[in-house]
Target: Alpha-ketoglutarate-dependent dioxygenase alkB-like protein 2
Amino acid sequence: MTTGDSGGLHLCTAEQGGATAGEKSDCRTRRVIELGNGSEVIYMSRFINYDESWDYLEYLNKNIPWNRPTIRVFGRSCVQPRDSCYVASEGLPQLVYSGYQPHAYSWDEFPPLKDILTAVHKALPGSRFNSLLLNRYKGGDDYVGWHADDEKLYGPTPEIASLSFGCEREFLLKKRPDKTPRGKKTSGEQPKKRSKKDGSPDKHSFVLKHGSLLVMRGYTQRDWLHSVPKRVKADSLRINLTFRLVL
Ligand SMILES: O=C(O)CCC(=O)C(=O)O
Ligand SMILES: [Mn+2]
Model:
């Protein structure tokens, strides 16, 4: 594992991919999935190499001050079904989700996270993430239910970069129900309005591999929900990092 800069990280950039025949680069595994109506997912299955990813998993498991808070879902209090921790740059508006306001730790406390952040920025030109929500799934009973990361402090079209280490888990996306009442005629042009009749699938599934990076962009948080469901057979540790920009 490297600290201080991202020199030791093996990564591919969002510009790469579309590999030429015979190319052995990991960037061959970059996929762009157009969800329609201005929503997009990018998936790089080997963003950080295998061995380095195990080092990160071990470091994060041991050094992050994990917490399993009580949150409110549909008006009821429950223990969050996974551990989490929040890291953010100083002076940002506080994150509150499901009635819970996590303490914001400093990037300076976890130098390897700064290395990863630098690598993610390099891979996604134009991105400037300033906060990170970490999740730890101890086994297949830990999960995150259907939700969108659509808190106001991320703005209308947040880019969210999600890096996974350890046990492979399924990541599901499903289209949110269209709010346009049936039969109601819409007049004039409505830019980026959702359309049910564009023929594109309204569900997607990804197996998030050890060292993979999945990026959600555009209107994905407005128009889609995502989840990592319980999976009895996924019985080992997984740690996921979601990088976000608080505006
Ligand atoms: O663990 C994952 O892959 C997703 C986590 C997530 O959606 C979140 O933290 O908002
Ligand atoms: Mn999420």
